[in-house]
C-alpha cells in the first residue's frame, strides 16, 4: 500500500489534488505467500503531510521465505496471526512513524 509511484511515460495533464491520497479500512485475510522475497508487506504513507494510511487489518497471513515487512506512515491498524517463517533469522519487521498499531499472535513479534 504505497502512493510512491513513478511512471516516466505518464501523461500528467491534470490538476494535482490538494488532498494527499490514503488507503483506509482494508482487510487482508487468509493469504499464504511461498518463496516470499523483498518487501512482501509494504505500507508507505506520507506522515509529513499527515496522510497516514489507516484501518488496515491483516489476519491469518503467512509469508514463507526471506521476506520483510516495511511499514512507515500507518496508523490505527491491526495485525493478527501474521507469520514470517524461514526469514533467515533476522526480524522481518521494520516499523517507523506508525502510531496505534496492534500485533496479536504475530511471529516473530516486531522489535
N-to-C series of helices and strands: EEEEEEEE
* Biggest pleated sheet: 5 strands, parallel
Portion in strands: over 45%
Mean pLDDT: 89
Which spans have pLDDT < 50 for at least 5 consecutive residues?
none
Note down, in words, how this protein is organized:
The protein starts with 23 loop residues before the first strand and ends in a 7-residue tail after the last strand. It is globular and about 45 Å long. Helix content is 0%, strand content 48%. The mean pLDDT is 89. The strands form two sheets. Strands 1, 3, 5, 6 and 8 form a five-stranded parallel beta sheet that branches. A three-stranded parallel beta sheet has the order 2-4-7, with no helix packed on it. By secondary structure, the protein is an all-beta fold. The chain has no helices and eight strands.
Brief write-up:
This protein is mostly beta strands and 111 residues long. The protein contains no helices and eight strands. 0% of the residues lie in helices and 48% in strands.
Amino acid at each position: 500500500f504505497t502512493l510512491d509511484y513513478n511512471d516516466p511515460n505518464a501523461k500528467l495533464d491534470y490538476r494535482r489534488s490538494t488532498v494527499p491520497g490514503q488507503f483506509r479500512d482494508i482487510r487482508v485475510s487468509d493469504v499464504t505467500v511461498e518463496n516470499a522475497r523483498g518487501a512482501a508487506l509494504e505500507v508507505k504513507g506520507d506522515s509529513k503531510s499527515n496522510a497516514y494510511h489507516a484501518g488496515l487489518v491483516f489476519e491469518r497471513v503467512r509469508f514463507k521465505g526471506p521476506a520483510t515487512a516495511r511499514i512507515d506512515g500507518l496508523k490505527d491498524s491491526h495485525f493478527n496471526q501474521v507469520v514470517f517463517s524461514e526469514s533467515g533469522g533476522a526480524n522481518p519487521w521494520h516499523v517507523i512513524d506508525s502510531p496505534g498499531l496492534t500485533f496479536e499472535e504475530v511471529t516473530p513479534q516486531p522489535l
